[in-house]
Amino acid sequence: MKNKYKYSAIIAFGLLVVSCxxxxxxxxxxxxDNMIVIEGDIILNDTTKVIISRSLALNDQNKINYISxxxxxxxxxxxIKYTATEVKRGVQIQYHIKxxxxxxxxxxxxCVLVSGRRYESNLISVLTTPPIDSIGYKTDLxxxxxxxxxxxxxxxxxxxxxxxxxxxxxxFHSQYLSVFEYNPTTKRVxxxxxxxxxxxxxxxxxxSSIMIASTAHLSQDRVFEKPLVSMGSSDMRVSYIYSxxxxxxxxxxxxxxxxxxxxxxxxxxxxxxxxxxxxxQGNIKCVSNPSERVLGYISAAVVSKKRxxxxxxxxxxxxxxxNCESVNVGPENPVSIEELYLTGYDVVSYFEDTNESYxxxxxxxxxxxxxxxxxxxxxxTNHK
Amino acid sequence: xxxxxxxxxxxxxxxxxxxVAQESGTINLNKVGLDSLRKVFERNTGMGLFxxxxxxxxxxxxxxxxxxxxxINDLSREFEKIGYSITRIGNSIFILKGIGILSDLxxxxxxxxxxxxxxxxxxxxxxxxxxxxxxENKIYRIGDPNIxxxxxxxxxxxxxxxxxxxxxxxxxxxxxxxxxxxxTTDAFGFYRMIIPxxxxxxxxxxxxxxxxxxxxxVYGDGEIDIFMKDKVYPLKGIVLTAESTxxxxxxxxxxxxxxxxxxxxxxxxxxxxxxxxIVLTLPGVKSVGESSGxxxxxxxxxxxxLILFNEGTIYNPTHLFGLFSAFNPxxxxxxxxxxxxxxxxxxxxxxxxxxxxxxxGNSNKITGSAGLGLLTSKFHIEGPIxxxxxxxxxxxxxxxxxxxxxxxxxxxxxxxxxxSFHDVTLGLNHKFDSRNxxxxxxxxxxxSFNFSADTSYSYQNMNFSLxxxxxxxxxxxxxxxxxxxxxxxxTEEKGNPVSAYxxxxxIRQMFLKTNFNWLIDDxxxxxxxxxxxxxxxxxxxxxxxxxxxxxxxxxxxxxNALEMALYISDSWSIADKFSVDLGLRYSLYSAxxxxxxxxxxxxxxxxxxxxxxxxxxxxxFVKPFTGPEFRISARYSFNDDLxxxxxxxxxxxxxxxxxxxxxxxxxxxxxxxxxxxxPQRGWQAAAGVYKNALSRRVELSLExxxxxxxxxxxxxSGAILNMNENIERDVxxxxxxxxxxxxxxxxxxxxxxxxxxxxxxxxQLRESGKKEVYNINRGDWYSASYDKPHDLKxxxxxxxxxxxxxxxxxxxSTGRPVTIPISxxxxxxxxxxxxxxxxxxxxPDYFRMDFxxxxxxxxxxxxxxxxxxxxxxxxxxxxxxxxxxxxDTSQGSKIQGYKLSIFGAPIPYINYNIKF
Lengths: 384, 916
Description:
The complex is a heterodimer.
Chain A: H1 2-17, E1 20-23, E2 36-39, E3 42-43, E4 48-54, E5 65-66, E6 71-76, E7 81-83, E8 85-89, E9 92-97, E10 107-114, E11 117-121, E12 124-125, E13 127-128, E14 132-140, E15 145-153, E16 161-173, E17 180-183, E18 188-191, E19 200-206, E20 211-214, E21 222-232, E22 241-250, H2 253-267, E23 284-286, E24 294-295, E25 300-302, E26 304-311, H3 312-315, E27 326-329, H4 337-342, E28 345-351, E29 356-361, H5 362-365
Parallel strand pairs in A: 2-24, 3-25, 13-25
Antiparallel strand pairs in A: 2-4, 4-5, 4-9, 6-7, 6-10, 8-9, 10-11, 10-12, 11-23, 14-15, 15-21, 16-19, 16-20, 16-22, 17-18, 22-26, 27-29, 28-29
Chain B: E1 26-33, H1 34-45, E2 48-51, E3 61-67, H2 71-81, E4 84-89, E5 92-97, H3 111-120, E6 125-127, H4 133-136, E7 139-142, E8 153-162, E9 173-176, E10 181-184, E11 190-196, E12 198-205, E13 212-218, E14 222-223, E15 225-228, H5 242-249, E16 255-259, H6 260-264, H7 275-279, E17 285-286, E18 296-297, E19 305-309, E20 312-313, E21 318-319, E22 324-325, E23 332-338, E24 352-358, E25 367-372, E26 376-386, E27 390-399, H8 402-407, E28 418-433, E29 436-452, E30 455-473, E31 476-493, E32 501-519, E33 524-544, E34 554-555, E35 559-573, E36 578-592, E37 595-600, E38 610-616, E39 621-639, E40 642-653, E41 655-658, E42 669-672, E43 680-693, E44 698-715, E45 731-747, E46 752-767, E47 782-783, E48 790-799, E49 804-813, E50 817-818, E51 821-827, E52 830-835, E53 841-842, E54 846-855, E55 866-874, E56 884-888, E57 896-901, E58 907-915
Parallel strand pairs in B: 2-5, 6-15, 7-13, 8-14, 8-15, 19-24
Antiparallel strand pairs in B: 1-3, 4-5, 8-11, 9-10, 9-12, 12-13, 16-23, 17-18, 19-20, 21-22, 23-24, 25-26, 25-58, 26-27, 27-28, 28-29, 29-30, 30-31, 31-32, 32-33, 33-34, 33-35, 35-36, 36-39, 37-38, 39-40, 40-43, 41-42, 43-44, 44-45, 45-46, 46-47, 46-48, 48-49, 49-54, 50-53, 51-52, 54-55, 55-58, 56-57
């Protein structure tokens, strides 16, 4: 018996200490920056949005290096140019081209002129995307996660390669509903109306991972439950209402290989049997200096979109974080409410008669800590 | 033809053995003990001889001069002289004191049996052990002094065997001191050499064996079997070892031989004595990282090593995706790695040959062992089925290693997996007579594992072979082996019911190898033969899995090929100090129909460059590739302790592994050369200096090499390797160059034993050909993934007593080259990485130290079982050696690099083994 105990002790020790992941900072890395990066699929049933930026050194924590004042246009194979207008959205600079309603049987190319250098994509055929069949989600109660997926198919069996991206919005609520507000100027607590609540908030985002699929190896052009995004139980997106507007785009085989390579280069590296990372040349080149490295792959398509709403009660995994601290202020605990306000508390309830009040950590009362009051126009609730 | 009387004398040292060669049927014994007499008698008459001797009588000796037919009568007469009688009951003869029951037998009564046994075994065995001081002065007569031969030289041959187990001993040096000549026993323990007539001294040396010295008086051709004893290692003392002799005297460059007892003393991860891992401790051998299957020899790729286990080709020699080797250490006898001079009888890979030999099994008694480790349990049993005729050895190993996957970091993706493996080895040999022996080998190893609930893998190696060894005549022998090798794997992925699949891959090969060895005279020993391999590959079968799967079933057409090679080589001793080995191998290869392929108009192969489509009928040659391979080496010895060697080798390889991972993975597929894929070719020139130093206690060697490789396969970015019917469009011809210098200091015996090696080497690759646009690094040279210039290894063992020793490994090497991101860009609403040129950077240097304590509690021979305990720590310093690096892009603009360490902490282990 004693020996057995020893034996298992050794195993347990082994379990604790074997392999590990540690940060790696390579030395002597010569970064390549300032490569031109051109993004902008030509969308024939929407506005084409082109983003031109420069690559950054790996450890450069600055924001994206957008290029402004470039000349950007889409040119059809017959030589007609559709020029872009520069649109500034915060720090982001986009070039918008009205490509809605162009003839999908023509080929197009994207052209960019940056400080005298001209960049051009190949002439690209326009692919038509079949509609999205459905967007759904699966709840995994063991891992407490929700995974959204898409189903689609092409009855003509001709699409074969798909790429998706989505915009997402969600409504969430603070943990405490407060109809009071502390006014730092008057240093008093006032009652507020529901229109002024800090309870209903909205967040929004866009997909950042690469979502592509191929059905080339299947007997039918059908995508079944292709995972798009997973969310855990503490993710606010699954708390109340989540909306996903999914864009589906048919892409060429070459585009699929390009995106798959980028995906592998970031997702599949570092395992025991991981492939060697490699770079694939995109379909956009610098025509004034052919040896210049340009990053980007331009596709052209008529896309399809679909929106999906998912309700927190249905998903059923949301668990609010237990990160609220509360202070009861009253005759027994005569704390300065100004002090409380300044140390990050927000008022939840207030009795004017007794001057008693109840304070909770701000993040649990004021939803604006995590989002905004900007309710999307299409939102299905009447919350304000 | 000279016949020599047989005498097996296991403990014959007390008696005077003075048996000499006579003509057929003549038995001449002088002053032999009863035990020896019994053996001779039983051998010649087929009858049992029994006696019960009182104290003092067991030293009775007698002399007899008789023939086989008259043996019993003459024996009876001799015994009568000293007051005994012999009595026959059934098939047994009893020696009794006084007057017996039967004193005479009809002449020729036993002649039928006698004749048969005459042709059965005509070897004389000499037991040699350290306490036989008298035997050292004993002179053994070879040949018949009465028959005069005009030649001044004679042929001596026989077997060298282990005294305790009766197993043949390979690699033992048999030497004549003056004039100096040396041969090494082959895998069967057989030696054959031309010796001068007259009085000579024969010296035998083998690693781990007591040195033997025999005085011979040579009259003519003859045979002598020699039994050698395991060495009880003197903790101090001066020894000239066999290995040093062999290194000094052979023309081989870059041959490494390691015996299993050495392997068992090297600390290993989880304490599993590992046949493959020991290979990695030899100079000139590298791997991509620990726990990666496969190894790289002198800049060669992992698929350029021919791994032979008892003649069978092993395609995946690892268990648990590279953590362990697939060979049961209790069954293995030794390994031999040919890094440079590859004998002409081997071919088919351009970098090295790793030969793993299993033991033949104890021929005296049934023995076995059982072992219990943290991960595996193993069992083996061996022994004679019929004494002197048939031996067997069988080993089994299985695992309960699921927990090991839990140790892997979540980032490896395998944390939730399960894994299991097992292997079975079987060996059987049967000696028909002294000229014919048959060997049967079987091997099976299987692995199955799943990294997640939805993905499972399994792979199997299976080998059968039959080997027949025949002595055609005194100077000529023949080994014919034939067998079947199979490697297959199966992958299942059922994560998504619509695309759930099952994929299978398999290689089958049938081989027939014929090797003749012909000792022409004392200057020439010629090897020649023919190797034939028939390959049949199923490159991929993809099937839907489950009722919902929409997967289109796909089957790539089978690949068939025939590889033949004719070879001849001559070991030519030009002078005592100078010898050369000249070998030529001519390789004939072709893929065989039915096959369809495309002809392409230019190097940039694709749909658009197809100019023709060719159909080859069943049995037709697709595209033959033929070419010579040269195997040349030379040795010059300045004296017994200093020699220099040089050599040149060229090789061809017709089968390629398709893999774009840096380490060997269980889903790597193999591809035969065909109309669009040329065979790989390579050559190596090497030279070395070998010296024995410090009173021959230390062997020093310095070897340098330069090597080139052509038509090695690399891949375009985004290449699809599995289920690709047009793989030729995704591959890139690559050429390689490698050079290096290897220093090795080895102290095989003594209190402190082990080796120290340092290697400086480089291996570079580049995309071949003249192209407008190159796929990899603009067509420039780049470092191979296993290019680790500095490499230092120490394997040391210190014996405090015979029962207690400590072992230590030290392994240092430059970090391997990797491709890392050097820029980032925002694209598709996320940060993406831009990677450097192939292998432009390196991970941090590798350093590891292991330590183990080996205890053998009891050596007492009377005990039924013997146990050994090994306690050790792998990666003693706990250094977090990087295996690979990756970058996390999910944290916004901060791109953090991480390194994955497989064994990033000290791993303690304990192993318990029982021998019975």
